[in-house]
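Anyone up for a design puzzle?
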């Protein structure tokens, strides 16, 4: 209970700011409408199903893009660590591509794929897979040679080596990268929606701003903040669970008797 109270104390400045805003603000302000008007605006968006549609679109696009970025990034990073020639060939190009801002790459994907959901996913994946590539490549390169030799000593097949030795060793790095990539993916998802107008919370904020609906803008910003908090909490718990699982698998792999 005490940790919860300590965390709740961190919200005191925000609550105080919102209270002062509510007391001294006005409902018809163009820039700073009262927080109570945000709720009214979101109720209206809920009644029109626009809120549910926007949140569902952003959530689905985020989850799909993060999953694809995780798989592709982990495979590329592992391949680069295992094949030095591939690493030397791809590394300069990847170093150039990964520093490109997402806002610059979106128009390129629009030209290639049009204003489609597939384009949005490709653009998001492109900007989100770099932490996974770098983390997986580093973790795979740091696997001790002695640990790799265990598979040969025990006459394990290639699949058994991957399942019993490599995967447990890579688990912490993969999920640490997943925690880093999660917020990046969420931010890029919103950015792509804003730039392209594809259905989602990002485009809803942009359209409300263009239509001079400040209460709706602030309301959607609050919704986005809650979604971002959930993403961070989920990524943190997933990282802890996966790290514990990887450690358990590593310990069981050392003690399990494998037939020759």
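Challenge accepted. My sequence:
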């Amino acid at each position: 209970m005490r940790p919860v109270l300590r965390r709740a104390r961190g919200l005191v400045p925000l609550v105080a700011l919102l209270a002062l805003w509510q007391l001294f603000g006005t409902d018809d302000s163009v820039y700073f409408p009262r927080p109570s008007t945000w709720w009214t605006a979101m109720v209206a968006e809920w009644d029109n199903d626009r809120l549910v549609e926007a949140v569902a679109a952003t959530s689905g696009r985020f989850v799909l893009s993060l999953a694809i970025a995780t798989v592709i990034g982990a495979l590329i990073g592992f391949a680069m660590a295992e094949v030095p020639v591939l690493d030397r060939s791809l590394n300069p190009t990847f170093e150039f591509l990964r520093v490109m801002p997402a806002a610059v790459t979106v128009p390129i994907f629009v030209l290639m794929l049009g204003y489609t959901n597939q384009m949005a996913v490709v653009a998001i994946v492109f900007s989100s897979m770099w932490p996974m590539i770098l983390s997986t490549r580093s973790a795979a390169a740091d696997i001790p040679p002695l640990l790799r030799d265990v598979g040969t000593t025990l006459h394990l097949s290639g699949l058994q080596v991957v399942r019993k030795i490599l995967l447990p060793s890579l688990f912490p790095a993969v999920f640490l990268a997943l925690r880093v990539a999660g917020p990046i993916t969420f931010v890029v998802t919103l950015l792509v929606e804003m730039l392209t107008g594809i259905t989602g919370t990002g485009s809803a904020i942009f359209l409300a701003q263009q239509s001079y609906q400040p209460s709706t803008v602030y309301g959607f910003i609050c919704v986005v903040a809650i979604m971002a908090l959930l993403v961070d909490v989920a990524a943190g718990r997933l990282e802890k669970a996966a790290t514990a699982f990887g450690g358990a698998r590593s310990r069981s792999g050392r003690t399990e008797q494998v037939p020759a």
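A detail worth pointing out: Residues 255-260 have pLDDT under 50 and may be disordered.
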